[in-house]
Protein backbone atom coordinates (compact mmCIF):
# COMPACT_ATOMS: atom_id res chain seq x y z
CA UNK A 1 0.00 0.00 0.00
CA UNK A 2 1.33 3.48 -0.86
CA UNK A 3 2.46 5.64 2.05
CA UNK A 4 1.07 9.07 2.98
CA UNK A 5 3.51 10.95 0.80
CA UNK A 6 2.77 8.84 -2.28
CA UNK A 7 -0.96 9.17 -1.71
CA UNK A 8 -0.57 12.93 -1.31
CA UNK A 9 1.31 13.25 -4.59
CA UNK A 10 -1.18 11.22 -6.62
CA UNK A 11 -4.08 13.06 -5.00
CA UNK A 12 -2.48 16.45 -5.67
CA UNK A 13 -2.10 15.44 -9.30
CA UNK A 14 -5.80 14.52 -9.48
CA UNK A 15 -6.70 17.88 -7.94
CA UNK A 16 -4.59 19.76 -10.48
CA UNK A 17 -6.20 17.80 -13.31
CA UNK A 18 -9.76 18.47 -12.18
CA UNK A 19 -9.72 21.91 -10.52
CA UNK A 20 -8.31 24.78 -12.63
CA UNK A 21 -8.26 27.08 -9.59
CA UNK A 22 -5.58 25.07 -7.78
CA UNK A 23 -1.80 25.28 -7.92
CA UNK A 24 1.04 23.33 -6.34
CA UNK A 25 4.22 25.06 -5.18
CA UNK A 26 7.37 23.03 -4.57
CA UNK A 27 10.97 23.65 -3.51
CA UNK A 28 12.57 20.73 -5.42
CA UNK A 29 11.29 18.12 -2.92
CA UNK A 30 8.79 15.88 -4.78
CA UNK A 31 9.27 17.79 -8.04
CA UNK A 32 10.35 14.64 -9.88
CA UNK A 33 7.19 12.81 -8.82
CA UNK A 34 5.03 15.68 -10.08
CA UNK A 35 6.90 16.15 -13.37
CA UNK A 36 3.99 14.78 -15.39
CA UNK A 37 1.53 17.18 -13.75
CA UNK A 38 3.99 20.02 -14.32
CA UNK A 39 4.08 19.20 -18.05
CA UNK A 40 0.28 19.23 -18.26
CA UNK A 41 -0.14 22.35 -16.10
CA UNK A 42 3.05 24.38 -16.52
CA UNK A 43 1.53 27.51 -14.98
CA UNK A 44 0.01 25.71 -11.99
CA UNK A 45 2.92 23.55 -10.84
CA UNK A 46 5.64 25.91 -9.69
CA UNK A 47 9.00 24.61 -8.55
CA UNK A 48 10.96 27.53 -7.11
CA UNK A 49 14.11 25.51 -6.46
CA UNK A 50 15.64 25.29 -3.01
CA UNK A 51 14.08 28.56 -1.82
CA UNK A 52 11.72 28.03 1.09
CA UNK A 53 11.03 31.70 1.82
CA UNK A 54 9.90 32.12 -1.76
CA UNK A 55 7.99 28.82 -1.57
CA UNK A 56 5.64 30.15 1.10
CA UNK A 57 5.43 33.70 -0.31
CA UNK A 58 4.58 32.34 -3.75
CA UNK A 59 1.72 30.41 -2.21
CA UNK A 60 0.49 33.64 -0.59
CA UNK A 61 0.74 35.51 -3.89
CA UNK A 62 -1.21 32.78 -5.69
CA UNK A 63 -3.93 33.08 -3.06
CA UNK A 64 -3.95 36.84 -3.55
CA UNK A 65 -4.59 36.23 -7.25
CA UNK A 66 -7.53 33.97 -6.39
CA UNK A 67 -5.98 30.52 -6.74
CA UNK A 68 -5.92 27.79 -4.08
CA UNK A 69 -2.26 26.94 -3.39
CA UNK A 70 -0.96 23.60 -2.11
CA UNK A 71 2.54 24.22 -0.74
CA UNK A 72 4.77 21.25 -0.05
CA UNK A 73 8.19 20.31 1.24
CA UNK A 74 9.82 18.57 4.23
CA UNK A 75 8.53 19.75 7.60
CA UNK A 76 11.63 21.56 8.93
CA UNK A 77 12.01 23.55 5.73
CA UNK A 78 8.31 24.29 5.30
CA UNK A 79 7.43 25.38 8.83
CA UNK A 80 10.66 26.32 10.57
CA UNK A 81 12.92 27.78 7.92
CA UNK A 82 10.38 30.28 6.59
CA UNK A 83 8.24 30.83 9.65
CA UNK A 84 7.94 34.59 9.24
CA UNK A 85 6.59 34.02 5.75
CA UNK A 86 3.89 31.77 7.23
CA UNK A 87 3.16 34.32 9.95
CA UNK A 88 3.06 37.43 7.74
CA UNK A 89 2.40 36.35 4.15
CA UNK A 90 -0.41 33.94 5.05
CA UNK A 91 -1.77 34.68 8.54
CA UNK A 92 -1.31 38.44 8.72
CA UNK A 93 -2.44 38.98 5.12
CA UNK A 94 -5.45 36.77 5.91
CA UNK A 95 -4.70 34.55 2.91
CA UNK A 96 -5.35 30.84 2.73
CA UNK A 97 -3.15 27.94 1.68
CA UNK A 98 -2.82 24.22 2.22
CA UNK A 99 0.66 23.57 3.60
CA UNK A 100 1.58 19.90 3.29
CA UNK A 101 4.70 18.65 5.03
CA UNK A 102 6.40 15.30 4.95
CA UNK A 103 8.91 14.16 7.55
CA UNK A 104 6.92 14.63 10.76
CA UNK A 105 9.12 14.63 13.86
CA UNK A 106 11.75 12.11 12.83
CA UNK A 107 10.62 10.19 9.74
CA UNK A 108 14.12 10.28 8.27
CA UNK A 109 16.05 9.27 11.39
CA UNK A 110 19.33 8.50 9.65
CA UNK A 111 19.41 12.05 8.26
CA UNK A 112 19.73 13.48 11.76
CA UNK A 113 18.48 16.62 13.43
CA UNK A 114 18.53 18.84 10.33
CA UNK A 115 15.63 16.85 8.89
CA UNK A 116 13.55 16.71 12.07
CA UNK A 117 10.79 19.13 13.09
CA UNK A 118 9.09 18.03 16.32
CA UNK A 119 8.20 21.68 17.03
CA UNK A 120 6.23 22.29 13.82
CA UNK A 121 2.73 22.01 15.27
CA UNK A 122 3.69 24.17 18.28
CA UNK A 123 4.96 26.84 15.89
CA UNK A 124 1.82 26.81 13.77
CA UNK A 125 -0.14 26.83 17.04
CA UNK A 126 1.38 30.24 17.86
CA UNK A 127 -0.77 31.65 15.02
CA UNK A 128 -4.56 32.01 15.17
CA UNK A 129 -7.07 30.27 12.91
CA UNK A 130 -5.15 27.39 11.43
CA UNK A 131 -6.51 23.91 10.78
CA UNK A 132 -3.90 21.33 11.74
CA UNK A 133 -4.40 17.80 10.44
CA UNK A 134 -2.20 14.93 11.58
CA UNK A 135 -3.47 11.89 9.66
CA UNK A 136 -2.78 8.44 11.01
CA UNK A 137 -3.30 6.59 7.72
CA UNK A 138 -2.75 7.32 4.01
CA UNK A 139 -6.50 7.17 3.34
CA UNK A 140 -7.06 9.78 6.04
CA UNK A 141 -4.38 11.94 4.45
CA UNK A 142 -6.15 11.72 1.10
CA UNK A 143 -9.52 12.58 2.58
CA UNK A 144 -8.13 15.48 4.61
CA UNK A 145 -6.38 16.91 1.53
CA UNK A 146 -9.53 16.67 -0.59
CA UNK A 147 -11.55 18.31 2.21
CA UNK A 148 -8.98 21.10 2.61
CA UNK A 149 -8.85 22.30 -0.97
CA UNK A 150 -12.30 23.94 -1.24
CA UNK A 151 -12.49 27.34 0.46
CA UNK A 152 -9.71 29.60 1.62
CA UNK A 153 -8.79 28.33 5.09
CA UNK A 154 -5.25 28.10 6.35
CA UNK A 155 -4.46 24.41 6.66
CA UNK A 156 -1.39 22.52 7.83
CA UNK A 157 -1.44 18.85 6.77
CA UNK A 158 1.32 16.91 8.52
CA UNK A 159 2.20 13.69 6.72
CA UNK A 160 4.26 10.95 8.32
CA UNK A 161 6.01 7.69 7.53
CA UNK A 162 4.32 6.24 10.62
CA UNK A 163 0.75 5.04 10.34
CA UNK A 164 -1.97 2.91 11.91
CA UNK A 165 -3.38 -0.31 10.45
CA UNK A 166 -6.82 1.20 9.69
CA UNK A 167 -8.13 4.66 8.81
CA UNK A 168 -10.71 6.51 10.89
CA UNK A 169 -12.70 9.20 9.12
CA UNK A 170 -14.79 10.67 11.92
CA UNK A 171 -14.75 14.35 12.90
CA UNK A 172 -13.35 15.57 16.20
CA UNK A 173 -12.37 13.27 19.05
CA UNK A 174 -13.83 9.81 18.37
CA UNK A 175 -14.11 7.26 21.15
CA UNK A 176 -12.59 3.94 20.03
CA UNK A 177 -12.69 2.37 23.47
CA UNK A 178 -14.64 3.18 26.63
CA UNK A 179 -13.41 2.97 30.21
CA UNK A 180 -13.98 4.52 33.63
CA UNK A 181 -10.53 5.37 34.96
CA UNK A 182 -9.70 8.25 32.62
CA UNK A 183 -9.19 9.40 29.05
CA UNK A 184 -6.29 8.93 26.64
CA UNK A 185 -6.19 11.12 23.53
CA UNK A 186 -4.20 9.55 20.67
CA UNK A 187 -3.23 11.83 17.78
CA UNK A 188 -2.67 10.48 14.27
CA UNK A 189 0.03 7.78 14.04
CA UNK A 190 0.02 7.31 17.83
CA UNK A 191 -3.28 5.42 17.78
CA UNK A 192 -2.30 1.78 17.29
CA UNK A 193 0.44 1.95 19.92
CA UNK A 194 -1.95 3.68 22.34
CA UNK A 195 -4.55 0.93 21.79
CA UNK A 196 -1.85 -1.65 22.50
CA UNK A 197 -0.60 0.25 25.56
CA UNK A 198 -4.10 0.59 27.04
CA UNK A 199 -5.20 -2.99 26.40
CA UNK A 200 -5.32 -3.80 30.09
CA UNK A 201 -6.32 -0.35 31.36
CA UNK A 202 -9.89 0.70 32.13
CA UNK A 203 -9.68 3.93 30.13
CA UNK A 204 -11.47 5.67 27.29
CA UNK A 205 -9.35 6.07 24.15
CA UNK A 206 -10.16 9.05 21.93
CA UNK A 207 -8.65 9.40 18.48
CA UNK A 208 -8.27 12.43 16.28
CA UNK A 209 -6.46 13.37 13.07
CA UNK A 210 -7.38 17.05 13.54
CA UNK A 211 -5.73 18.82 16.48
CA UNK A 212 -6.67 22.40 15.54
CA UNK A 213 -9.27 23.42 16.16
CA UNK A 214 -9.11 21.21 19.24
CA UNK A 215 -12.34 19.38 20.04
CA UNK A 216 -12.77 20.78 23.56
CA UNK A 217 -16.42 19.75 23.70
CA UNK A 218 -15.50 16.19 22.73
CA UNK A 219 -12.90 15.95 25.47
CA UNK A 220 -15.28 17.47 27.97
CA UNK A 221 -18.00 14.99 27.06
CA UNK A 222 -15.65 12.03 27.43
CA UNK A 223 -14.48 12.78 30.96
CA UNK A 224 -16.37 11.59 34.01
CA UNK A 225 -15.97 12.63 37.63
CA UNK A 226 -12.57 14.08 38.52
CA UNK A 227 -10.90 13.60 35.18
CA UNK A 228 -7.49 12.19 34.43
CA UNK A 229 -6.45 12.92 30.85
CA UNK A 230 -3.36 11.77 28.96
CA UNK A 231 -2.40 13.32 25.61
CA UNK A 232 -0.24 11.23 23.29
CA UNK A 233 1.00 13.38 20.42
CA UNK A 234 3.65 12.54 17.80
CA UNK A 235 5.36 15.95 18.12
CA UNK A 236 6.56 18.22 20.92
CA UNK A 237 5.31 16.98 24.30
CA UNK A 238 2.54 19.19 25.69
CA UNK A 239 1.67 20.93 22.42
CA UNK A 240 -2.05 20.48 23.12
CA UNK A 241 -1.82 20.74 26.92
CA UNK A 242 -3.11 24.31 26.84
CA UNK A 243 -6.15 23.23 24.84
CA UNK A 244 -6.92 20.35 27.21
CA UNK A 245 -6.49 22.57 30.28
CA UNK A 246 -8.85 25.17 28.80
CA UNK A 247 -11.44 22.48 28.06
CA UNK A 248 -11.31 21.29 31.69
CA UNK A 249 -10.66 24.67 33.33
CA UNK A 250 -13.57 24.48 35.77
CA UNK A 251 -12.88 20.89 36.87
CA UNK A 252 -10.20 19.58 39.19
CA UNK A 253 -8.16 17.48 36.76
CA UNK A 254 -4.81 15.82 36.15
CA UNK A 255 -3.05 15.97 32.82
CA UNK A 256 -0.23 13.87 31.38
CA UNK A 257 1.46 14.99 28.18
CA UNK A 258 3.40 12.49 26.08
CA UNK A 259 5.23 13.39 22.90
CA UNK A 260 8.74 14.10 21.72
CA UNK A 261 11.24 15.21 24.33
CA UNK A 262 11.59 18.87 25.22
CA UNK A 263 14.57 18.69 27.57
CA UNK A 264 17.20 17.64 25.07
CA UNK A 265 17.89 17.01 21.40
CA UNK A 266 17.99 13.33 20.59
CA UNK A 267 21.32 13.11 18.78
CA UNK A 268 21.08 9.59 17.40
CA UNK A 269 20.58 8.21 13.87
CA UNK A 270 19.22 4.69 13.51
CA UNK A 271 15.61 3.75 12.80
CA UNK A 272 12.13 5.05 13.57
CA UNK A 273 11.90 2.43 16.33
CA UNK A 274 15.12 3.74 17.89
CA UNK A 275 13.62 7.26 18.00
CA UNK A 276 10.28 6.03 19.32
CA UNK A 277 12.20 4.45 22.20
CA UNK A 278 14.36 7.50 22.80
CA UNK A 279 11.26 9.72 23.08
CA UNK A 280 9.24 7.19 25.08
CA UNK A 281 6.73 6.87 22.26
CA UNK A 282 6.87 3.12 21.60
CA UNK A 283 3.93 1.06 22.87
CA UNK A 284 5.87 -0.30 25.85
CA UNK A 285 7.05 3.10 27.06
CA UNK A 286 3.57 4.58 26.59
CA UNK A 287 2.09 1.68 28.57
CA UNK A 288 4.51 2.31 31.44
CA UNK A 289 3.77 6.05 31.51
CA UNK A 290 0.01 5.47 31.42
CA UNK A 291 0.07 2.76 34.12
CA UNK A 292 1.91 5.09 36.44
CA UNK A 293 -0.47 7.99 35.69
CA UNK A 294 -3.73 6.05 35.99
CA UNK A 295 -2.87 3.92 39.03
CA UNK B 1 -11.47 66.96 -6.31
CA UNK B 2 -8.18 68.05 -7.71
CA UNK B 3 -5.84 65.20 -8.58
CA UNK B 4 -2.65 67.02 -9.25
CA UNK B 5 0.77 66.20 -7.90
CA UNK B 6 0.95 69.61 -6.26
CA UNK B 7 -1.57 68.58 -3.60
CA UNK B 8 0.59 65.78 -2.25
CA UNK B 9 3.03 67.77 -0.08
CA UNK B 10 0.07 69.31 1.72
CA UNK B 11 -1.46 65.86 2.29
CA UNK B 12 1.85 64.46 3.53
CA UNK B 13 2.30 67.36 5.90
CA UNK B 14 -1.03 66.47 7.51
CA UNK B 15 0.74 63.34 8.78
CA UNK B 16 4.31 64.54 9.30
CA UNK B 17 3.39 67.97 10.60
CA UNK B 18 6.33 69.10 8.53
CA UNK B 19 6.20 70.85 5.18
CA UNK B 20 9.68 69.62 4.34
CA UNK B 21 8.66 65.98 4.98
CA UNK B 22 10.79 63.08 6.11
CA UNK B 23 12.99 61.23 3.68
CA UNK B 24 11.13 57.97 4.12
CA UNK B 25 7.81 59.67 3.41
CA UNK B 26 9.07 61.47 0.45
CA UNK B 27 11.50 59.30 -1.52
CA UNK B 28 8.60 57.36 -3.03
CA UNK B 29 6.10 60.11 -3.71
CA UNK B 30 6.83 60.76 -7.38
CA UNK B 31 6.99 57.06 -8.24
CA UNK B 32 3.69 56.41 -6.44
CA UNK B 33 2.04 59.34 -8.15
CA UNK B 34 3.07 58.29 -11.64
CA UNK B 35 1.91 54.72 -10.95
CA UNK B 36 -1.50 55.61 -9.54
CA UNK B 37 -2.10 58.57 -11.88
CA UNK B 38 -1.01 57.11 -15.18
CA UNK B 39 0.06 53.44 -15.09
CA UNK B 40 -2.05 51.22 -12.85
CA UNK B 41 -5.56 50.19 -13.91
CA UNK B 42 -7.13 50.34 -10.47
CA UNK B 43 -9.57 52.81 -8.94
CA UNK B 44 -11.67 52.93 -5.78
CA UNK B 45 -14.50 51.46 -7.88
CA UNK B 46 -12.42 48.50 -9.14
CA UNK B 47 -10.40 47.63 -6.05
CA UNK B 48 -12.13 44.24 -5.77
CA UNK B 49 -12.13 43.49 -9.50
CA UNK B 50 -10.09 40.29 -10.00
CA UNK B 51 -8.78 41.77 -13.26
CA UNK B 52 -7.39 44.94 -11.65
CA UNK B 53 -3.73 45.82 -11.65
CA UNK B 54 -2.06 45.20 -8.30
CA UNK B 55 0.31 47.49 -6.46
CA UNK B 56 2.20 45.86 -3.56
CA UNK B 57 4.06 48.29 -1.33
CA UNK B 58 6.88 46.11 -0.02
CA UNK B 59 8.84 48.90 1.66
CA UNK B 60 6.09 49.46 4.20
CA UNK B 61 7.81 51.95 6.49
CA UNK B 62 7.27 55.65 5.90
CA UNK B 63 3.89 55.15 4.17
CA UNK B 64 2.86 58.81 4.30
CA UNK B 65 3.36 59.34 0.57
CA UNK B 66 1.36 56.16 -0.07
CA UNK B 67 -1.56 57.31 2.07
CA UNK B 68 -1.40 60.76 0.47
CA UNK B 69 -1.60 59.28 -3.03
CA UNK B 70 -4.43 56.95 -1.99
CA UNK B 71 -6.28 59.97 -0.58
CA UNK B 72 -5.63 62.07 -3.67
CA UNK B 73 -6.99 59.22 -5.82
CA UNK B 74 -10.12 58.78 -3.73
CA UNK B 75 -9.33 55.46 -1.98
CA UNK B 76 -9.19 57.31 1.36
CA UNK B 77 -10.86 60.39 2.76
CA UNK B 78 -8.14 62.96 3.27
CA UNK B 79 -9.77 63.95 6.56
CA UNK B 80 -8.37 60.66 7.91
CA UNK B 81 -4.77 61.65 7.36
CA UNK B 82 -4.38 64.11 10.23
CA UNK B 83 -5.40 61.45 12.74
CA UNK B 84 -3.04 58.81 11.38
CA UNK B 85 -1.38 56.33 13.75
CA UNK B 86 -3.83 57.12 16.55
CA UNK B 87 -5.80 54.28 18.07
CA UNK B 88 -8.87 55.57 16.25
CA UNK B 89 -7.16 55.49 12.85
CA UNK B 90 -6.81 52.65 10.37
CA UNK B 91 -3.65 54.29 9.01
CA UNK B 92 -0.58 53.06 10.88
CA UNK B 93 3.15 53.43 10.44
CA UNK B 94 2.93 50.25 8.41
CA UNK B 95 -0.12 49.74 6.19
CA UNK B 96 -2.71 47.05 6.93
CA UNK B 97 -4.47 45.46 3.95
CA UNK B 98 -7.38 44.34 6.10
CA UNK B 99 -8.18 47.93 6.99
CA UNK B 100 -7.06 50.31 4.25
CA UNK B 101 -8.91 50.31 0.92
CA UNK B 102 -6.57 49.83 -2.02
CA UNK B 103 -3.76 48.36 0.07
CA UNK B 104 -3.00 44.94 -1.43
CA UNK B 105 -0.55 43.70 1.23
CA UNK B 106 0.20 44.51 4.83
CA UNK B 107 3.89 45.36 4.97
CA UNK B 108 6.56 46.56 7.33
CA UNK B 109 8.87 43.59 7.71
CA UNK B 110 11.23 43.86 4.74
CA UNK B 111 11.59 41.36 1.94
CA UNK B 112 8.02 40.12 1.60
CA UNK B 113 6.52 42.21 -1.19
CA UNK B 114 8.53 40.99 -4.15
CA UNK B 115 8.17 37.27 -3.30
CA UNK B 116 4.41 37.68 -2.84
CA UNK B 117 4.21 39.73 -6.04
CA UNK B 118 5.88 36.87 -7.91
CA UNK B 119 3.18 34.50 -6.70
CA UNK B 120 0.44 36.95 -7.63
CA UNK B 121 1.87 37.49 -11.10
CA UNK B 122 2.15 33.72 -11.57
CA UNK B 123 -1.44 33.27 -10.38
CA UNK B 124 -2.80 35.92 -12.74
CA UNK B 125 -0.89 34.34 -15.62
CA UNK B 126 -2.27 30.90 -14.74
CA UNK B 127 -5.77 32.39 -14.93
CA UNK B 128 -5.08 33.99 -18.29
CA UNK B 129 -5.55 37.53 -16.97
CA UNK B 130 -3.59 40.43 -18.42
CA UNK B 131 -3.44 42.36 -15.14
CA UNK B 132 -0.12 43.77 -14.08
CA UNK B 133 1.59 43.42 -10.69
CA UNK B 134 3.88 46.22 -9.54
CA UNK B 135 5.83 46.08 -6.29
CA UNK B 136 7.92 48.81 -4.70
CA UNK B 137 11.08 47.94 -2.78
CA UNK B 138 13.92 50.00 -1.36
CA UNK B 139 17.60 49.50 -2.15
CA UNK B 140 18.39 48.63 1.47
CA UNK B 141 15.44 46.26 1.49
CA UNK B 142 17.12 44.44 -1.36
CA UNK B 143 19.61 43.19 1.27
CA UNK B 144 16.96 40.65 2.33
CA UNK B 145 17.74 37.28 0.74
CA UNK B 146 14.08 36.58 0.04
CA UNK B 147 14.23 39.22 -2.69
CA UNK B 148 17.10 37.43 -4.39
CA UNK B 149 15.13 34.20 -4.38
CA UNK B 150 12.35 36.05 -6.20
CA UNK B 151 14.62 37.92 -8.63
CA UNK B 152 16.08 34.63 -9.87
CA UNK B 153 12.82 32.74 -10.21
CA UNK B 154 10.83 35.61 -11.78
CA UNK B 155 13.54 35.88 -14.41
CA UNK B 156 13.47 32.14 -15.16
CA UNK B 157 9.67 32.12 -15.29
CA UNK B 158 9.66 35.04 -17.71
CA UNK B 159 6.97 36.80 -15.68
CA UNK B 160 6.41 39.81 -17.93
CA UNK B 161 3.35 40.87 -15.95
CA UNK B 162 5.62 41.60 -12.96
CA UNK B 163 7.32 44.95 -12.39
CA UNK B 164 9.62 45.82 -9.50
CA UNK B 165 10.29 49.48 -8.90
CA UNK B 166 13.32 49.92 -6.71
CA UNK B 167 13.78 53.23 -4.94
CA UNK B 168 17.53 53.72 -4.84
CA UNK B 169 18.58 56.21 -2.19
CA UNK B 170 21.91 54.41 -1.68
CA UNK B 171 21.08 53.25 1.81
CA UNK B 172 22.11 49.59 1.50
CA UNK B 173 24.72 48.91 4.17
CA UNK B 174 27.15 46.97 1.99
CA UNK B 175 26.11 48.37 -1.39
CA UNK B 176 25.80 46.71 -4.80
CA UNK B 177 29.06 46.78 -6.79
CA UNK B 178 28.33 47.40 -10.44
CA UNK B 179 24.96 48.90 -9.56
CA UNK B 180 21.63 47.42 -8.58
CA UNK B 181 20.49 47.17 -12.19
CA UNK B 182 23.14 44.48 -12.82
CA UNK B 183 21.54 42.25 -10.18
CA UNK B 184 18.31 42.18 -12.17
CA UNK B 185 19.85 42.16 -15.66
CA UNK B 186 21.98 39.11 -15.01
CA UNK B 187 18.84 37.17 -14.01
CA UNK B 188 17.04 38.06 -17.23
CA UNK B 189 14.99 41.08 -16.26
CA UNK B 190 14.45 44.10 -18.50
CA UNK B 191 15.86 47.03 -16.55
CA UNK B 192 15.52 50.81 -16.78
CA UNK B 193 17.35 53.22 -14.50
CA UNK B 194 15.79 56.66 -14.27
CA UNK B 195 15.48 59.63 -11.95
CA UNK B 196 12.92 58.90 -9.26
CA UNK B 197 11.78 62.51 -9.59
CA UNK B 198 11.28 62.70 -13.35
CA UNK B 199 7.65 61.87 -14.09
CA UNK B 200 8.07 61.52 -17.84
CA UNK B 201 11.12 59.29 -17.45
CA UNK B 202 9.30 57.14 -14.88
CA UNK B 203 6.23 56.82 -17.09
CA UNK B 204 8.42 55.92 -20.03
CA UNK B 205 10.23 53.30 -17.92
CA UNK B 206 7.00 51.74 -16.63
CA UNK B 207 5.69 51.44 -20.18
CA UNK B 208 8.88 49.96 -21.62
CA UNK B 209 8.26 46.98 -23.86
CA UNK B 210 9.55 43.90 -22.01
CA UNK B 211 7.84 40.93 -23.62
CA UNK B 212 8.79 37.64 -21.98
CA UNK B 213 10.76 39.26 -19.17
CA UNK B 214 9.91 40.89 -15.85
CA UNK B 215 10.68 44.60 -15.62
CA UNK B 216 12.79 46.35 -13.00
CA UNK B 217 12.69 50.13 -12.79
CA UNK B 218 15.52 51.55 -10.70
CA UNK B 219 14.32 54.97 -9.54
CA UNK B 220 17.27 56.96 -8.26
CA UNK B 221 16.61 59.58 -5.59
CA UNK B 222 18.89 61.65 -3.35
CA UNK B 223 20.72 59.65 -0.67
CA UNK B 224 18.91 59.27 2.62
CA UNK B 225 19.46 62.36 4.75
CA UNK B 226 20.98 64.16 1.79
CA UNK B 227 18.21 66.70 1.22
TrEMBL record, chain A:
The lineage of its organism: Bacteria, Bacillati, Actinomycetota, Actinomycetes, Pseudonocardiales. Keywords: Transferase. GO terms for molecular function: magnesium ion binding; transketolase activity. Pfam families: Transket_pyr (PF02779). InterPro entries: PDH/Transketolase (IPR051157), THDP-binding (IPR029061), Transketo_C/PFOR_II (IPR009014), Transketolase-like_Pyr-bd (IPR005475). It comes from the Bacteria. Residues 2-167 form the Transketolase-like pyrimidine-binding domain. SUPFAM superfamilies: Thiamin diphosphate-binding fold (THDP-binding) (SSF52518), TK C-terminal domain-like (SSF52922). The keyword Nuclease does not apply. It is an enzyme of class 2 (transferase). SMART domains: Transket_pyr (SM00861). Its EC number is 2.2.1.1. It comes from Amycolatopsis jiangsuensis. This is Transketolase.
UniProtKB/TrEMBL annotation, chain B:
GO terms for molecular function: magnesium ion binding; transketolase activity. It comes from Amycolatopsis jiangsuensis. The lineage of its organism: Bacteria, Bacillati, Actinomycetota, Actinomycetes, Pseudonocardiales. PANTHER family: TRANSKETOLASE, TRANSKETOLASE N-TERMINAL SECTION-RELATED. It comes from the Bacteria. Residues 21-210 form the Transketolase N-terminal domain. Keywords: Transferase. Its EC number is 2.2.1.1. This is Transketolase. InterPro entries: THDP-binding, Transketolase_N.
Amino acid sequence: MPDMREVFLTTAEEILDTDPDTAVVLADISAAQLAGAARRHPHRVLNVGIREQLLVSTGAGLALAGLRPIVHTFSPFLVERAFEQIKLDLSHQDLGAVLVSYGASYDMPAEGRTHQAPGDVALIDSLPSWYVHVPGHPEEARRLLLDSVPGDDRVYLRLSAQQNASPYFGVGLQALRHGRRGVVVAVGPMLDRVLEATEHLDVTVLYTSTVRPFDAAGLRAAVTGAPDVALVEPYLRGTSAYQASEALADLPHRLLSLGTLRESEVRIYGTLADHDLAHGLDAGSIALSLKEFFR
Amino acid sequence: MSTTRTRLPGLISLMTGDDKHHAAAESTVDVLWVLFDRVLRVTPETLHDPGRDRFLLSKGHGPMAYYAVLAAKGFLDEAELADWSSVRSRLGHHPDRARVPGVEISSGSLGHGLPIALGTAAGLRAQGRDARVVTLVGDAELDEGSNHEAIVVAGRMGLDNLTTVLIDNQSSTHGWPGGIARRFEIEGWAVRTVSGRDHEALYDAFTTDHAGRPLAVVAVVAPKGGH
